[in-house]
Design goal:
The protein has 19 helices and six strands. It is α/β, with parallel strands linked by helices. The chain has a six-stranded mixed β-sheet. Pfam families: DNA_pol_A_exo1, DNA_pol_A_exoN, HRDC.
Amino acid sequence: MPLTPDTDPATDPDDEQAAAAAEPEPPEAPPAPLLVLRDGLPEVVDTDEGLAEACAALAAATGPVAIDAERASGYRYSNRAYLIQLRREGAGTWLVDPITMTTLAPLQQALEGSEWILHAATQDLPCLREVGLVPTSLFDTELAGRLLGYPRVGLATLVETVLGQRMRKEHSAADWSTRPLPTAWLDYAALDVEVLLELREHMIAELEKADKTEWARQEFENLLGFEPAVRVDAWRRTSGVHRLRGRRSLGAARALWEARDAIAAERDVTPGRILPDSAIVVAATVMPTDRRALLATQGFHGRGAGRYAATWVEVLDRVREMGEDELPSRAPRGDGPPHPRTWADREPVADRRFRAAREAMLNLAEVHHLPVENLLTPDYLRRLMWAPPETRDPADLADAVRAQLTSYGARPWQAGLVTGALVGAILGAEIEPEDPEDPEE
């Protein structure tokens, strides 16, 4: 008996595709529930009397304190905090307006000895310190996410991934210096601390399971002394400045940047709102000699382009009169090693060291499921590979590498994890590679 199509093991592929197309698509997973405030939106604390009430409640509660700060980045020159949010088990959520306070010393006293939970602590610690709030211990949920190997560590993403809830983030770039603050903004701000206590508990368990608890402890302890890096020649970060040719054009860009920065600081306005970077580059390229020529220059625009035109012209005149020794160099001066792309020609052994070490770091980072920059700061790797310890005895070299990394600022867990691989890179680079074009004799 011939086989029927229903029983034929070699069914026509077209029939299979038709059958698959006829099958209903599996239903999409429902979206995660939207996070809402459990206790409702609290009133903003904007008086010393209200702060005293908040401090009493927070001091009487127990456990870690979730804390966040809202700044006006993109609107103001300063990095000050315009709203501080706090939540503690037993005390609920408090929204504090630091602009209206005489002092926040009572709040610092109320939080004394507690662990602070922050997300991306390096963003908030400077502005909190500015108003007298300094933690004695902390837990950073963003950094914990990095150590755990999460590919995306924004708060909203972690909350959805770890806690299964969605957060609105539409007010993240708001001008928090606005007064009064809109209710929708305040709701958004309160939600930022609503989840931190629960998120911390989940991450503590994950760190323990991954045997990374000690790594996190060392990282968090290191954050307590965090200070923002002071940028040398900050004007060189002007977007498009690399397109300028000639030291005088660079001098013009530097002078215009410094003039803009002074105006922005005085007015407490972000510099880009005075004059965009593109206008600085255009003016430095053309070097117009008077107000009319300046304002007629294509691409020279901005809120302060005309208002401060006399300042910009004066700056350019001053640059034209500078001597060569007063103009900036093409390359920034630094205390570190040259860029690794130049090593192959300048120091071939150092280049081999660096390439081997970088590959080893990438492999280690993959094995331990964390970003390579959290395994070891890239600048530490460059410095070590450019100027490694002199000894080549393996044991002594390991001790010296560990000590050198520690002197740069590497934490003990980092130095312990990478030293073996870096010693191998240093010793391996000493062996001259064979030339593939030379046949063996």
